[in-house]
Design goal:
One of its GO terms (molecular function) is DNA binding. The protein has three domains: 2-99, Winged helix-like DNA-binding domain superfamily/Winged helix DNA-binding domain (Arc Repressor Mutant, subunit A), CATH 1.10.10.10; 108-204 and 325-347, Rossmann fold, CATH 3.40.50.2300; 207-322, Response regulator (Rossmann fold, 3-Layer(aba) Sandwich), CATH 3.40.50.2300. The protein is 43% helix and 19% strand. It has helices at 2-27, 36-49, 62-69, 73-85, 119-132, 147-157, 174-178, 207-216, 218-221, 239-251, 278-291, 308-312, 324-337; strands spanning 89-92, 96-99, 108-114, 136-142, 163-166, 186-190, 200-204, 226-230, 256-259, 271-275, 300-304, 318-322, 342-345, 347-350.
């Protein structure tokens, strides 16, 4: 009996609280220039600020809001959508809308899912952060090429953010996992994975751009005895780069090797080393320094992805890379303007001392 009375008390309190919320919305009718959409959003915000609504409270359904306020369905849906984008409420599939955050000063909340926090991702994040400005909150997650972790993160963030900016991973389950995100709030960055629906993306292209770079460097590569490429199975290296390398050495009859990783102390004169892992690149450069091997003449080094360190170290490492600052600016434009975008960031070869 006590449980029943307790449940009835909670129900009565909920009805009382929601009546207060509706009153907060109606109060805003007296403010000149306030649209019904603004009344709805600000009414909920005022209710949270005054502790009428607290985290975990369920909001009325769209139909219930139409009945209570007399607003059009489009107005209610638009209001709830803005509150979701600001990270104040979340939508739980088939369960309705709930208060998820009582920080009502937060205008938009972004979920950014990356591979790992390496130098390239740092460049992207800093430019993305700067382009969005301090008023936008970003929560950063990393999946490390682990599909179980990738799925867990997607499950945990879905419905809780205004925008989702995601670097996908190549896996048969990726498309199905990404279907959980609202496609109009989802931006695919860096790498492209085909999914159902016409999504927005700001990506780079790997196979044709890599092949083009190799051909552009052909005359220099031919000055060395062999081209050595380091590619570990099941790494996060795009398979398209390996395809481009194999096509290039076959088309132009280049002597080559593909090794899993660079072993410390194994540097040989007369080789062009194609490096896609920065940690292994630093080990190779250390070996060159210790053995007095001259870059650009006794060996060559080509590194995938550029960063400021590679411009300086050893008088410059030759790289090819997409412009990650430009990618970040394009991604920020999507978040700020909510406009569909589908762009491929150009790949640029930067020739320096090493090749």
């Amino acid at each position: 009996m006590l449980n029943l009375f307790g449940q009835l008390s909670v129900a009565r309190n909920y009805k009382r609280d929601m009546r207060n919320v509706f009153e907060k919305i109606q109060e805003l009718e007296e403010i000149p220039g306030y649209s019904k959409h603004q009344q709805l959003v600000q009414g909920f915000i005022n209710s949270i600020d005054e502790k009428i609504l607290v985290r975990g409270d369920q909001l009325p359904s769209v139909n219930a809001m139409i009945k209570e306020t007399g607003f059009a369905r489009e107005t209610i849906v638009k209001g709830y959508k803005e509150l979701i984008e600001r990270g104040i409420i979340e939508s739980k599939n088939r369960m309705g809308y709930y208060i998820s955050n009582t920080d009502t000063g937060q205008p938009v909340k972004i979920a950014l899912l990356l591979y790992a926090f390496d130098s390239v991702q740092q460049t992207f994040y800093k430019a993305f952060r700067d382009a969005l400005g301090p008023q936008i909150h970003i929560d950063v997650f990393f999946h490390h090429q682990n599909v179980e972790l990738f799925e867990t993160i997607i499950n945990n963030i879905t419905g809780k953010y205004g925008m989702y900016v995601v670097t996908p991973m190549p896996h048969p389950r990726t498309a199905e996992i990404l279907k959980k995100l609202p496609i109009n709030k989802f931006l695919m960055i860096d790498r492209f994975e085909a999914i159902d629906g016409d999504c927005s993306y700001v990506i780079q292209e790997f196979e044709e751009s890599s092949y083009r770079v190799f051909v552009e460097l052909l005359d220099t590569i031919r000055q060395f005895d062999e081209m050595v490429f380091f590619s570990r199975p099941n790494s996060d290296l795009p398979i398209e780069i390996t395809k481009a390398f194999k096509r290039f050495v076959k088309d132009y009859k280049i002597n080559y090797r593909i090794n899993k990783e660079y072993l410390p102390g194994s540097v040989e004169k007369g080789k062009v080393y194609f490096m896609c892992n920065d940690m292994q690149t630093w080990i190779l450069l250390k070996d060159c320094k210790e053995k007095g091997i001259k870059l650009g003449t006794e060996i060559g080094i080509l590194s995938q992805d550029d960063d400021p360190v590679k411009e300086i170290i050893c008088d410059g490492i030759t790289t090819y890379s997409a412009d990650f600052e430009l990618m970040a600016q394009k991604a920020a434009n999507f978040v700020l303007n909510h406009e569909k975008t589908q762009e491929v960031i150009p790949t640029v070869l930067k020739r320096r001392n090493s090749l």
